[in-house]
């Protein structure tokens, strides 16, 4: 029998156990976490409390260090595993899957743009202490202002979205020098003066992601912590621009997880509670024998299998670049994987939206009860799939197949 989040935190089911040693083991653990989260996902979503307990569950299960170096107690796994872990957790609770996905992205941030020394220091720090990341990097807002104070940098400004930041131990800041416009990333402790969370996240879905605004006021960072800078000069690589393709494929994992959770929940409801329609030309004894229910589930599952297969393929392609020697990643390779990610994301979003919408047709009128909570899946996918216009992803694929044009790196490509 699946235990609840409260029971899991009280009993610590993974206490004293070593972390999984295989990709399959990590994915299985993620499914255990998802099962725990699914028990009261609706109630927690309705309450809308800060997900402190949920982040503790992620830490206790050590999914937070699935990518961390084994030498420091991490899983030492690849991004193919990490993306499947995000997908599995999202099936149990889309909000917490998003928190985990963003954490793993920011945990990889030093590797994306940092120097070798910065990578080693950050990965040892977060892995050995099992620290949780958030980010204040929303590109649709004005950049944080960065000022050179000699030995330090000073960040100031406001970001309207800062997913996971309020429940984080470490916060990724991004800003630009006013004169040159050059961008700077830095990782800072979250609990400090100068960082104030606005507590204004009040959205239709993904309610437990703590994605509200944050004020940054005079946060100082040593120049040595400016990611990728050596003697105040940034060392640029194509690899640095993989941050956006990576987060877009993380979105794919979240969307597929939400679809998987919606379909599994609906199937269970139909088996146990949906009644057959008695007024048709050939009444059935159970809902599981109704032709329109069988046809709908067959269509939804087929679409989901297709989206999963594409995502699995693209996950492997992206991981091949993320785990390559950073100097070897070319603009062409980066562009081609960005196109494939654009295809994967838009297919996953369409499958998830369709699934979350149509499950009501095969569960019945009683399934609209607030106590059932099937609305959580539609609200979650509808909210996050608006992150950036999916139409632009379709256009990127079209430009590639028609004109062999790869996307230029941007904050959304």
Automatic annotation (TrEMBL):
Key words of the record: Monooxygenase, Oxidoreductase
Pfam families found in the cross-reference section: Acyl-CoA_dh_2 (PF08028)
GO molecular function, one term: monooxygenase activity
SUPFAM superfamilies: Acyl-CoA dehydrogenase C-terminal domain-like (SSF47203), Acyl-CoA dehydrogenase NM domain-like (SSF56645)
Signal peptide: none
Keyword Oxidoreductase listed: yes
Domain of life: Bacteria
Protein name in the entry: Monooxygenase
